[in-house]
Amino acid sequence: MWKNYLKVSFRNLQKRKLYTGINLLGLTIAIVSFLAICLYINHEWSYDRMYSDYNRIYRLNQEFRSEGEAQLVSSTPSSLIPTLIDEVPEVENGTLIFDLSIFSSVMIDAGDGNQEEKSFAYADENFFELFDFDLISGNSTQVLSEPNQIVLTKSTAERYFGNAVSSVGRVLKVDTKDYVVSGVMEDFPSNSHIDFDFIASFKTHRHGTAPEWSPSNYYTYVKLKESAEPQAFEGKLEQIVDKYLGKDLAEYGYQTSFFVQPVTQIHLGDQTLGSIKPGSDIRYIYIFGVVALLLIAIGIINYVNLATAEATERNKEVGLRKAMGAGRGQLFGQFVSESMLLTFASTVLSLIALYLISQKFASLSGVPLDLNLVVSPFGIALLVSFVVLIGILAGLYPSLILSGMEPIKALANKTKVGGGAWVRKSLVVFQFFVSIGLLISTFVVKSQLDYMKEVNLGYDKEHLVSLNYHYNMRDGVETIKNEILRSGAATSISRAADMPIHIKAGYKVFPGGDNQREFMITGYSVDKDIIQTIDLELIAGNKFSESDIKRADLEDTNEHFTVILNESAVKEMGWSVEEAIGKTINLGFNSNTEIKGVVKDFYFNSLHHQVGPLFIFNDPDQANVLLIKLPEGDPAKLLSTIEGIWEDLVPERPFNPVFVDQAYNQLYSAEQKSGWIFGLFSGIAIFIACMGLFGLVSYVALRRTREISIRKVLGATQGNVVTVLASDFLKLLAFAAVLAIGFGIWFSKNWLQDFANKTDPSIWPYIIAIGIVFSLAIATIAYRSWKVFTLNPAKTLKSD
């Protein structure tokens, strides 16, 4: 029976080539989009689930509180993990990681000269027991058990030594210290939040043999015993704080506590915490999941619309089958088999297309698509279920409509498809509501990204280059500055702790001097040239001068020291900008700090956050980047001049400049990728919807061929014909546009609320999105109308 169904279905699909082609292409595009998004979501959701007993592994985060303000960070002290292992029975094992790249890069020499590397970390001997990554060479319990050991990833070992296995036992010079390669591991999986090229033994680090409760610079992970409850474990953490940290922090006006976070929630968790590898917003996962379902729905709607539209063309077929004794169930099976056959063909084409686009999709989205999942037994079972489900959903309504026809009326061609027109109109509205809504969302995302690129940050990031240098170069940095300035390749240079796009160091203002307020503040370690180098706007007082004492030269905490504040810091203390000049404050490390100047607020963090209090202080010894302001001219030529000076003065260190504006754009890579994905799939939704519209217009035009020919004979123009055919469809599009505007307002409000600094709402995303969809729809209708209009009226009227 099913063999006959499939044979007849194949003939019917072959007979109606236009509608079959439209449905096949529409379903194929919808399915490949659905599968790509599903693989994307699966990758994001699978983060850190490859470890044994991953559900018992937690990262510890730390919260600092002072005067009602709280700051939650993902790093903790080095003493925490050995203390927990020794004193808390719920802990089965634990490890810590020190990500050195947060502070500086390292120089690696395997005998062929220095290479600058940033993906470098220290980890203790428990690392490979807690995180059971695959080791190609080496014993997991021994590779990090002694000082001066280092584990390389496979690709890193091949890069330095040519062969992974033979690299074990070789020596790498890291800065000035020799490390022995004790093991080689497979490259970190793309769905692990831990990702380094080098992992050195933590016993090499000064806190590896003498752990302390300050500073909090280390990522701490614990594996709890099977019987342990995370809530009970957190209660034990409070006891650890009281025992080791409470009194000391209280003297400085702080309180602290530790919290557990499941390792599987790091990637899609609170992104303000920070992590080894940038995470993602879980809202995007939900949004993309909805988009995937909507795209499949649009593809199915195309089939349903065209199938119900064609229903009257198959009246005689249905009537004849019923007259020959076919039951409703058999007719239902026949029509569902057609949709199944079409869905199966679309799925096969989708898998081929998915294979062809996977690399391009991965490069643009930053997420690799694991095609092995598709061809695994589980994946094949899901695909079969998928084909059956989509086939039934696509063919269900048309089958019920067609199989319910009365034989006599069907043979007399007097059957009207009940409710078919209403259903088709509703589905057309839904298709274009989705298309316009996605396009509006795309333009809202794009407008925010454009705003972030063009917003006045309060400093000039253009022609500004950042150049990292090592702390052991401090004595020679001034010479490098002077030589570059003398060459004319820079107009100004400043030493700084960070690029101004992301200043991280946290401090505290204590009561004292002229200020009695206590609050958290960000500190920016720089030299005297920072104001003119990045073009900060000094609105009161003066910039730093040669006579200002540097922090490293302070002999006691009461010695006179000068700082420059931003407007937010002054406002926090309750002063006007002019009143602040000359007043003294207590910064903890110095209680006699004079406010020398005030700069206009500038964005020193992501636009997701408001500008907070900031003080800029003269402390070049804590700096590790050179900020170089290039003059007008060819940047490549200027950088070539700077590179020559660098190679002469620092031949052992590679020249790796970074343009600050490019680094700024990288802060919003997640939003950029989301915008790209929105744009791609909104375009796909519009294309599928317009294909469906083309099919419906084709059907209507063919049904009204006689009417159109009569109109043409009576003098109607092509424009009149387009108007006749388009009027009903444009009404549906207008209704869809109204619904999409409501969705766009909701999306804009919810998506932009995550940004403390956002673009003003604009009507243009709505106008442009609706304009694009309407233009494409009219073009589709006009083309099909033209095809019918060009038919010879004499032939069409005669044949009818």
How would you briefly describe this protein structure?
The chain is built from 26 helices and 24 strands.
Tell me the Rg in angstroms: 34 Å
Distance between the termini: 37 Å
Into which percentage range does the β-strand content fall? 15-25%
Average pLDDT reading = 82
Describe the protein in words.
The structure is a single chain. The chain has 800 residues and is of the alpha+beta class. It folds into three domains: 2-42 and 281-450 and 669-799, no CATH class; 54-265, no CATH class; 464-666, no CATH class. The chain contains 26 helices and 24 strands. The strands form three sheets. Strands 1, 2, 3, 4, 5, 6, 7, 8, 9, 10, 11, 12 and 13 form a 13-stranded mixed β-sheet that branches. Strand 1 (57-66) and strand 2 (69-73) form a beta hairpin. The longest helix has 38 residues, at 328-365. The chain is globular and about 105 Å long. 38% of the residues are buried.
